[in-house]
Amino acid sequence: MLGMIGATMLLALREIRRHLLRSFLTTLGIIIGVAAVITMVTLGRGLTADVQEEISGLGSDVFIVFPQRADPNVPAPPFDDADIRAVENQIAGVEGTAGSVNANATAFHNGQDWTTSVQGADSEFFTAQSIDVVQGRGFNEQEEARGESVCILGPKIAEEIFQADQILGEQMRVGNVSCRVIGVIDERSNSVGGGNDADDVVFMPLKTVQRRFIGDADNVQFFVVKYDPAYQTTVIQQQLIDLLRERRVIQDGEDNNFNIVDTAEINDTVNTITGTMTAVVTMIAAISLLVGGIGIMNIMLVSVTERTREIGIRLAIGALAREVRLQFLTEAVVLCCFGGLIGILLALGLSILLSSAADLPFVFDPVVNVLSFVFSAVMGVIFGYYPAHRASRLDPIDALRHE
Fold first, then answer.
1. In this predicted model, what pLDDT tens digit does every residue of 195-220 receive, in sequence order?
2. Domain that residue 211 falls in
3. 8 Å CB contact between 186 and 134
4. How many CB atoms lie within 10 A of CB 52?
5. pTM to 2 decimals?
């Protein structure tokens, strides 16, 4: 059996080589279809990974609560520390809360200056937002409680204004505030909210920024709520809404003067949208595979007609119908497999090129590539069976008379 399959494979390869250009043109549909499907799936996964990286800068399993105007003519009141403590102590499933404030400032060091943002935060904020300090350390309790003038730098500003390798322990000025650098955070996503570069930031203790930059020791511009994913997110969110409406004295029927962003919900929405887009584009690209399969059937029917006399001779000298069927079916499968292999290699090059051009991560998925190759072989079986069956049913006498 193996010997017959090997001999059939050699005959198929010989026939394909005899009509190399025609074989290549026949497989173009398969090549384009496979390349398009793999490229679209790869770019879709790269887009998803890129957006997920952006969202990860907001933290995982986190609510972000902002003031929001309910009346366009009335500014939304800010939060205060009592609101944050109430959320942490009164809602089950909340693991931690942390307030924050932002301000724009210019950083100076050794004659270098850089316009950046300064953000007030504490250790709980770093935990909730998944911010890692890779050099030095984070703020300690004393620095947070006293509002001391210490700072932690984002990697971009550390690179821009510090020419020497030594950063930790250096004094720098942010606006009118002199501070000592105690740490540098790891690189984060490209931007977090409003298009701001998450790596271009100077962190200081919350009280320091409130007093020295905002001028209000109680003002909290927004706060994050880290919750336990084992709890129902919708329940925690509703309890959070009810508590804040009560504390902010919002009457029944009045709109909320705050907004809650759920990072997990954003992530799910992004996955759904990108998944749907990838599926739709892939289905459109898969039409090329169908066209390619029809092309394979067409050329195999032509091949049967051209080789009618050869088929008659084989049948006349004792070849079995199933052997003839296997030969033509093998040719169709080999053609499709070659097309699938070329399509995979083309897709690899296109994916790398387009990912680089679009500034997306290249996410190689071996499962998609293997499935595409297997699907190509299946296409060969489906569209090659009828021509192969037709060849096996030829009458030897009629076939020998064929000119």
1. 467 788 999 999 999 998 888 777 88
2. 78-247
3. yes
4. 16
5. 0.63
